[in-house]
Amino acid sequence: MIRFTLNGRPAEADDPPNTTVLNWLRDQRLTGTKEGCAEGDCGACTVVLRDGDRFRAVNSCLLLLPMLNGREVWTVEGIGTPKDPHPVQQAMVDTNGSQCGYCTPGFVMSLFEACYREDLDDDWKMDDQLCGNLCRCTGYRPIRDAAKQTGGTRPADRFLTVLSEPTPAVEPLDHESGERFVAPTDAAAATAFLAEHPEARLICGATDLGLDVTKKGVRFPLLLSTEHIAEAQRIDAIDDGWSIGAATWLTDLEDWSATELPVLHRMLRYFGARQIKHRASIGGNLCNASPIGDLAPVLLMLEARMVIAGAGGSRTIPLDDFFLGYRQTALQPGELLLRVEIPRPPAYAQMGAYKVSRRRELDISAVAAGLRVEMSKDGTIGRARLAFGGMAATPKRAFKTEQALVGGPWNEAAAARAAAHLAEDFSPMNDHRGTAWFRNTLAKNLLIGFAHESADGPEFTPLPTGHTGTVVAR
Predict the structure, then answer these.
(1) pLDDT at position 325
(2) pLDDT of 469
(3) Residue 223 is inside which H or E element, if any?
(4) Which residue in 158, 350, 391, 453 has a CA-CA distance of 20 to 30 Å to 462?
(5) Contact 303, 242 (CB under 8 A)
(6) How far apart, in Å, are the Cα atoms of 89 and each of 104, 149, 380?
(7) Burial 389-405 (b: 16+ CB within 10 A, else e)
């Protein structure tokens, strides 16, 4: 049985594990939560989960029902009533932020999260809060006015009290109702289960796997969730850098990297909507092994290591050796990714991270890049790591281009000469996101642009508040 708290009251469900939270809520006649796209793009299905001392707005269309076990969830019906609306609901009324009303519940729940945030110190953060919600008729100005009125106000109400209460420990779950969903809370239990059931499909936040359920009608017979494994939820300092748990949500990684690793933060700014980043994990993004996954190029550039756990113990391999082919990884049956280790880059390393897509937000890369050069004492390039996504069947380093850079100066002319070797490293495909010519040209221009951006030395340039993309022009 799945047990959780719904709108402040105990709830339980015995539905099949492949049931989405969206469909379950609507079956309970909580129809304020809407279905628009069923793929995490429109935000009409947004609900809010409590996670310790914070709220997280998430897409209920991609959330499987067993993922609510031991959690607290709120829908638009649970935060206010017509006679006593929540401040964000009243603000939407006062600013005329609703017209047809279909998108309104999702906006309200995103604003609800924003209402209790303590970090809305830049305008871009409010834009980021709302970018996962679409409105077709009212326009965003009145909705943004409502957000400005209520964002970060943290009213002294029952919800602020909820955030101050202790969070119950999540118990392991083994739920079977037609299909089976297992959620252990430690790595030993997870790997022991995998040893007995190597056919189990690993799942964490379901931002990708959930699409198989909603779009393809797939019903996974056995799912093993890794999101509650304690060892995979932490970010720790280690001797030569940092260890990031594979189940770390990308919003948490984004917050951490803003000060610790700004080059990674730049890529995360345009990774996806906040609702997606609240459920997408670093491990899920890498184990998905998509050739256009946005984290892989920057982590390849950073020399990340993969700590893999199995019933017989753990092993560590470079991320360079993790991707074996299209959607194929080095994970063996019975293994799972436990942590990602990132060595601390030397102070003299010059680094850049770039993503180019058709849309500015909520879009898949045509090409993404993580680029790095390290200068020798004589002023020449002693080492280079250039990694690209969207240029091959896997995220991949440009080895010949790296070699062409080493030993020479670092400037735009040198980058342009080395960029000619990208054609030896990659043979990209034509698809609806870009032709092979476009991708090759784009990769060359990103390398030259990186030289232009880093011309003043190794100090990294973070994105400005009024950003328009991951490329910074001087």
Answers:
(1) 94
(2) 62
(3) strand 222-225
(4) 391
(5) no
(6) 9, 11, 59
(7) bbbbebbbbbebbbebb
DSSP states of 448-467: HHHHHHTTT-S---PPPTT-
Please tell me the distance from the alpha carbon of residue 324 to that of residue 314, in angstroms, as a whole number: 19
Q: Residue 184 contacts by C-beta under 8 Å, 6 or more apart in sequence?
A: 172, 190, 193, 224, 225, 228, 229
In the structure encoding, which two tokens stand for residue 189, read together?
């239990």
Sign of CA dihedral 26, 30, 36, 40: negative
How long a stretch of residues is the chain?
474
pLDDT tens-digit map of 369-395: 999 999 999 999 999 999 999 999 999
Amino acid identity, position 386: L
What number of other Cβ atoms are within 10 A of residue 79's Cβ? 22
Q: Give the whole-number percent of the chain exceeding pLDDT 70.
A: 97
The class that CATH gives domain 1-168 is: alpha beta
Domain ranges of the chain: 1-168, 348-474
Spatial neighbors of 37 by CB under 8 A, at least 6 apart, are 44, 61
Classify domain 348-474 by CATH architecture. Answer: 2-Layer Sandwich (3.30)
Q: Which helix (H) or strand (E) segment is 445 a member of? A: helix 436-453
Q: How far is CA 187 from CA 38, 232, 311, 424, in A?
A: 32, 8, 9, 42
* pLDDT at 473 exceeding the cut of 60: no
Whole-structure pTM value: 0.94
Which of 172, 177, 307, 140 minimizes the C-alpha distance to 238?
307
